[in-house]
Each structure stands twice: as structure tokens, then as C-alpha cells.
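Pilot study result, target chain (639 residues):
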Amino acid sequence: MWSVLLALTLTGALGEVVNVHVNNNTKLNLSFDVDYENDQFLLDGRPFRYVSGSFHYFRSPRQYWRDRLRKMRAAGLNAISTYVEWSLHQPSETEWRWTGEADLIEFLNIAQEEDLLVLLRPGPYICAERDFGGLPYWLLTRVPDIKLRTNDPRYMRYVEIYLNEVLTRVRPYLRGNGGPIIMIQVENEYGSYACDRDYLYRLRDIMWKIIGTKALLYTTDGNSASMLRCGSIPGAYATVDFGTAANVTKSFEIMRLYEPRGPFVNSEYYPGWLTHWEEPFQRVRSEAVAKTLDEMLSLGASVNMYMFYGGTNFGFTAGANGGEVTYLPQLTSYDYDAPLTEAGDPTPKYFEIRDVISKYLPLPNVSVPTASPKGDYGPILLTPVLRLFTPQGRESFATVVVQASEPQSFEALGLPHWLVLYEADLPANYSDPALLHALVRDRALVYVDSNLIGTLSRTNNIYDMSLEQPYGRTLRLLVENQGRLNYGSGLRDFKGVSAVTLNNISLGPWRMLGLRIDDISPIRFLPSISMASGTLRNGPVILRGNFTVSGQPMDTYLNTIGWGKGVAFVNGQNLGRYWPLAGPQMTLYVPASFMRTGENELVLMELEYVPNSWKMKLQATPILDYKGQSSNSEGDSSN
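Predicted structure:
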């Protein structure tokens, strides 16, 4: 006889406290519950603990989902954890996406077929080192003074629509309905952000209405009493997260302050860490990972490793950390020094973790993975085809053209990402040199007429520039959105430029061109143009090159060393930002699924510098921790 205890302590909008006890003496129903009396989980009525790994489906091509999940199962994991990214699934207020890389249901199907349970983290805020923490940018356009992650009814209106859409879709995949989803997280590490209990109660109640007892609600917070106090709520099982440097016993003692009984859970155990541009690649020692994991499992804890497979921030999806004083944009690669590399290859860390898990759980009858072969396709000659500032360049990519007395934000212009060109006429008479001031979010290339003068940078706190002999007629600021903040109090991270003055006199009116570089088809049939290599004094340039793949395509890496800053496309697929002048990431991961047998196309939007070689190289090995100088060693000729 199995006794299934569902201990649901619900308050707030749900009204009175409810305790539900279900005894099933005949047939075990599919369920996932907490047995508080014995400090354990119950899966279908039987004692259970999970060893899970994080894998975000939106960071990998759909074609690789099964491969990555199977490798996770082969490591001994019996569950996986994934965020659901609101901005991916609702890119505009009137548009929903559930196909391709947004096919969450197919991801859940594959996980179940690969014998993996699922911990679902639908947000609405997810952090995840993604632009705006996974929130859709258009929230800032609808309500500029919106109070994010609070019970602000203007925010909650959209949140409820989103959660209802997601949870209704996944409802058939809850454990109680025969699916793999055993747990669903309420918000995300909320104790690190605020203490709005009404907000958390509202989220819990929205979820409860659809989920009921078919899966377990839970919260995740850092291993401090204050974070758990603000992030945990009745009706959701409170868990903690911590890495290898934490004291395991003390961390779980803090969890016990808010969950006196039930299993220990570390919902984010960090076998690696994130990296920003302009800093060394972050690594966590395998021995430390294995040692702390062993200690947690010896206590009977359930653990989710964040990340087990990191993947890639393709396109413009990488976020940033910081606030008003600091700003640290994150890499395109989300390799994370995880047990599986960005290309899904097992590392020594993978096998050390597998050895630890084998002491506590039976290993599945799944082949142990090996590294996949990589393509070494050699150098690609790039030729320029279009200057962005020319009439043809503007016409090809300017999706928004606005005039106003003051510069408008990206959000006000309805532009989700990357570039806006701000133009204003300079006054006829001013001193030489003149002092330009501009509050830029996040980086601006400054031109007088079409001549590059310098760079303003939020990262480096450079908001002032001396313009010597500024006798031109037009000031141009090409402003780059390097990723909205994804963590902390500064989430309302509007992009663009403001407070632009010359010798303390405001400039304006402004002409603004919103440049969306999503679709590169406008350059498909353009002929080559003539220009010199070196620093791009007259504005960004688009370059194109071809390479041939013989036989079945293999994963490869695009080496960007020697170039400046920009984005790269292979066969129209946006690989993401490259910035070898900053590092440490020098290569962009190119999945085999982005290529085809025969001729392939590489397109660059280069903002700052073209080397004398005019080449990039597709190679078989990544470079994510470059420690040398990637300066423009091939010379700097103006054009």
C-alpha cells in the first residue's frame, strides 16, 4: 500500500488553508508530490529524487534537441530543467510563435521519449542571461513607466495572458496527465529582486488554476534567509541554489527555515559560470563540481545543474548585467564551461559528474557520447557589397524613419534590437575644440558628416568626446543595443541616446533610422564595391563570401580574429555578435544544421574594422578564452 501525501498550504486569493490527503490502495496514479513525513519526493507514489540538468531549448537548433537530451540521460540524469522565454513565444503583442526553435511541445515530447522528467520554469521573468531577462521588449513600448515584476495591473494584464497561453499548451504534459512535467517554478529567484508578496500570490493562483494537483509548484532562491523570506510563498515548495564554494550543510539549513520538512533541493547548482565581453572566460574546476555534487547527493538531495548544456545566444538574444554605474554585456556563446560544450561534446567534467551520479542512481542503457567530428572548411574571402550609410544601405535596412525634437529610444521607435542611426544638424558657429556629451545606451560610433570621430561607451563610462575642427554639417550617432539588462533593479533598460549637447547646448531636431538587420536578402544580388581595408571611417559595411561543403555538413567555428565588431550570418541564419577586439570569444559556433552540401554563404555586418586579408576562417576548434592581443595588427588604412 502506497500513501500519497499532497500537502498544499494555500493562502491569499485561494482563501482558506487546504490540506489534501490522497490514499490509493489499488492502483498507483501518475503524480509528483512531497512526502513531508519522510523528507522525500514521491513519483507515482514511490520515493524519488531527481538529478537534473538545465538545457534551454531556445539555445540550440531544434535538430539537436534529441542529441543533447540523450547525452544528458547517458550521464545518469533522470530529469531536465528548462526556462520558457516569453520574448521568443510572443515577439509582438499580437504575434505568437510555437514552431521551429519555439516548438516547446516537441521539446517536451522528445524529453519524455528520452526518459527524462521535466522541471518547467515559465517565468514570466527568467533572467537566463537573455535580453531583458526573457521579457518581451514591447512591454516598454506599451507602458513606458511599467513596474516590472510587481503586481502592477498594467504588467499583470500581459503576464496573465502569457501564462495562460503557455500553461494551457503544456497542461497535457503535466505528470498527473501522463506527461513528463513534475514541477513548475513560480517566477524566478524573486527574493533577489523584491518582496511583493501580492505579486507572487497572483502568479501562484494563475498557475494553480490550470495546473491544480497535476504537478508541483516550487520557488528557487539564493541560499540566504532574506532571499527565501521574499521569494518563497505558501503553496509552492521552497528550494535554494548555490555553487561549489558554498557550505552544503549551512545552505540546506537556510532552506529548512522555510521548508522545515521535505527533501533538500538545490535548483541551480553551478558546474560552470557565465562570461561577459572584455573579461576572462569563466571556469569552474571539475574536481570541485564532483566533490560538492557528491556531498549533496549523499544527503539525499535532489539537484539541478545549471547549466548542463549551455548552447548559444544566436542573433541578438544575449543580455547584460549591471545597472546605472556598470554595464557588462554577455557573450554570444553560452558554453558556460558546462559538462557538454557549446557543440554538445562531453568534457572531462561530464564524466566526473557521471561517475558521481552512478553511486546514487542506476545508469541508463544508453551509449556514452563522444565528441562529434567538426568541419575545417578553411578561409573565406569576404568582399564588400554595401555601405550602410549610402542611400541604398539606408533603404535596404531602415525599417523605421522618424523625425522628432528629441532623440527617441529604441523602444519608442518599435525596434527590438541592434542599431539606430541618430542624425542632427550641427550649429553654424561653435568653439574649436567642441565638447560633445551624450548619454548612450549602450555604445555609439560618432561621425561628423561621414567621418568617424570616436566611440562613446556605457561599458567604459565614456559619455564625452572632444570634437576637434568639427566643421561638418551633420552629427551622426550610430547607437548599438548590446543587450538589455537581465538581472537586478535596472530591468527597465531603454536603449538609445539622450541628453545630447555640444558645448552644453542641446542639439536637435533629430532624424532617426531604425536599422533591423534580421533579413539580409536585400544584398543577395548586389555586386562587389571598391573600398580599402582598415578602420571604417565612413560607416559600417556589409560583406559577402562563399564557401563549399563537400559531403554532409559538420559543426564548425567561424574565427573572427583580426576583425572589429559586428554580426555574422550563414545562409541567412544569424550566428550572433562577434567582437574580437574585446574578447575573450573569438569564434562563433556554426551548427551543421545551418549549412548545406555544396555552396554556402557568409555575410557580415562589420561596424568598425576590416583586416588586410579580407578573410575569416571556418575551423574545427573553438576559441572562447583568447588571452592574446587581437589588435588590428594588419594595419589601419582609412577609407
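One observation from the pilot: The chain has eleven helices and 36 strands. A full batch analysis is planned for the follow-on phase.
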